[in-house]
């Protein structure tokens, strides 16, 4: 009499890019996977949903950048076509238009970062200020995404980094800090120099087309996650919403055997956490098992940043030069973006009026305000950027407050981030705040770390084929040569001189 082979049981906690990625890979390889999501639907903050009136809203708009090779590969594998064409973007201040960006891949390719420097169209920033960024290129060469580089630069603030390399005050104020406010979601004095270099290099400096971006033609939940979840369920995985994890069961050998959700227990041969910093902190605060390990207690030292997402429906069409726009200088420590959804989302393409998404990061001062107080502020800011909004009337709106929604890459925070592998042999981590040497950021990083965690489960269980993770594009030859020379010089000087970097 034959006996059925027992499938390894894996519990994945969190149904965003990381959790769905891990679940899809493992379910496709024959694992018994249960995906637990604390919210009402898969996707968490990224997915989006319908209002009571049937209108689509999101917890902020998310771009898909040229280097997102793994996400683009997934979407192709799923047979989806969710994205716009490559779009141009702009940057505004209260003084008006500051910067226009072209489609970089359409222009003759120059050695990085020369193309970014020459092709970006600055409207007001003098050339002498832009040239003051040249000494900063040494830090780009020196920061190679290694553990050593992260530890070396993580104790320095981004503001100190730019000051030490003699970046002009105007270039910092009008260019670099606005990038930080919408890229790392905090002002320069609150951002790690290591995270700053990693983010800037990945999205802007590594290769000329890296700043090119596409957008989802609707909410990510409707366009990507919903059909993806269907494929995941067809592969045999269980997706359970409204399941808030409260503990992990650890046996006498130090291995996880189950995940606790209130009165329910889900058996597990491996556990993958795929939640953000705030979600993980809630789990740790309730979990005696996780609290027993210092690495999990240390997560409580990490911070997160408030986000405000607004969507405004206007009574008339307003001509907006470019569909995606970043803004700075309106509030000292807050960056914001606005998007022309008539140009980006299918459902609004033929709408009689203009639909705008405006998202604010590091939005602490806005969250206590009422909707009736917030909407006029947003309307006024839009009018400053595009004066034609002055005559347009807001006929409907949505305001979503998201306290502690995104990771704060504060100076000194790297020591508290977890790698994929934890001290519990079969408890693995994934997400956009988890340490990885892949080099990616944001949604791509979350998805990649989910695949990395799934591959580790496959290694440990010896069942199935590992996911093929596409590496980031290799450094260009002149960058590789510069890094090699710098490493040789650093090793030589370290043998002769004391190390002046703090640990």
UniProtKB/TrEMBL annotation:
<dbReference type="InterPro" id="IPR050464">
    <property type="entry name" value="Zeta_carotene_desat/Oxidored"/>
</dbReference>
<dbReference type="GO" id="GO:0016491">
    <property type="term" value="F:oxidoreductase activity"/>
</dbReference>
<feature type="domain" description="Amine oxidase">
    <location>
        <begin position="18"/>
        <end position="458"/>
    </location>
</feature>
<dbReference type="InterPro" id="IPR002937">
    <property type="entry name" value="Amino_oxidase"/>
</dbReference>
<dbReference type="Pfam" id="PF01593">
    <property type="entry name" value="Amino_oxidase"/>
</dbReference>
<protein>
    <submittedName>
        <fullName>Amine oxidase</fullName>
    </submittedName>
</protein>
<dbReference type="InterPro" id="IPR036188">
    <property type="entry name" value="FAD/NAD-bd_sf"/>
</dbReference>
């Amino acid at each position: 009499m034959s006996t059925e082979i027992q499938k390894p049981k894996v519990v994945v906690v969190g149904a965003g890019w990381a959790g769905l990625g891990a679940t899809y890979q493992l379910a496709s390889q024959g694992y018994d996977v249960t995906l637990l999501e604390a919210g009402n639907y898969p996707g968490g903050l990224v997915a989006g949903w319908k209002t009571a009136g049937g209108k689509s809203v999101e917890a902020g708009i998310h771009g898909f950048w040229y280097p997102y090779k793994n996400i683009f590969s997934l979407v192709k594998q799923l047979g989806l076509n969710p994205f716009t064409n490559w779009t141009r973007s702009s940057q505004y201040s209260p003084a008006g238009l500051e910067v226009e960006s072209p489609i970089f891949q359409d222009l003759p390719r120059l050695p990085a970062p020369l193309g970014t420097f020459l092709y970006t169209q600055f409207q007001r920033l003098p050339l002498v200020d832009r040239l003051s960024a040249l000494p900063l290129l040494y830090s780009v060469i020196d920061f190679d995404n290694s553990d050593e580089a992260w530890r070396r630069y993580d104790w320095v603030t981004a503001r100190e980094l730019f000051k030490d390399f003699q970046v002009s005050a105007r270039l910092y104020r009008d260019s670099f800090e606005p990038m930080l406010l919408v890229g790392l979601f905090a002002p320069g004095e609150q951002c790690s120099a290591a995270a700053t270099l990693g983010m800037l290099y990945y999205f802007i400096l590594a290769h000329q087309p890296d700043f090119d971006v596409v957008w989802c033609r609707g909410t990510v939940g409707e366009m990507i996650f919903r059909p993806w979840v269907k494929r995941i369920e067809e592969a045999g995985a269980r997706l359970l919403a409204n399941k808030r994890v409260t503990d992990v069961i650890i046996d006498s050998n130090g291995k996880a055997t189950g995940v606790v959700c209130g009165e329910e227990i889900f058996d597990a041969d491996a556990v993958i956490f795929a939640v953000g910093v705030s979600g993980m902190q809630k789990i740790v605060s309730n979990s005696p098992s996780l609290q027993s390990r210092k690495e999990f207690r240390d997560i409580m030292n990490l911070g997160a940043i408030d986000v405000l997402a607004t969507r405004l429906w206007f009574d008339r069409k307003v001509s907006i030069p470019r569909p995606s726009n970043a803004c700075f200088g309106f509030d000292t420590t807050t960056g914001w973006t606005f998007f022309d959804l008539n140009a980006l989302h299918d459902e609004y393409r033929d709408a009689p009026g203009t639909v705008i998404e405006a998202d604010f990061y590091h939005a602490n001062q806005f969250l206590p305000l009422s909707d009736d107080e917030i909407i006029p502020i947003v309307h006024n800011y839009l009018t400053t950027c595009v004066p034609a909004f002055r005559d347009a009337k807001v006929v409907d709106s949505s305001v979503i407050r998201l306290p502690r929604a995104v990771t704060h890459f504060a100076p000194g925070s790297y020591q508290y981030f977890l790698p994929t592998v934890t001290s519990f042999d079969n408890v693995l981590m994934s997400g956009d705040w988890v340490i990885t040497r892949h080099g990616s950021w944001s949604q791509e990083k979350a998805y990649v770390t989910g695949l990395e965690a799934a591959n580790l489960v496959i290694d440990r269980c010896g069942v199935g084929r590992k996911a093929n993770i596409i590496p980031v594009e290799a450094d260009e030859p002149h960058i590789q040569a510069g890094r090699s020379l710098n490493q040789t010089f650093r090793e030589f000087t370290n043998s002769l001189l004391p190390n002046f970097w703090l640990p």
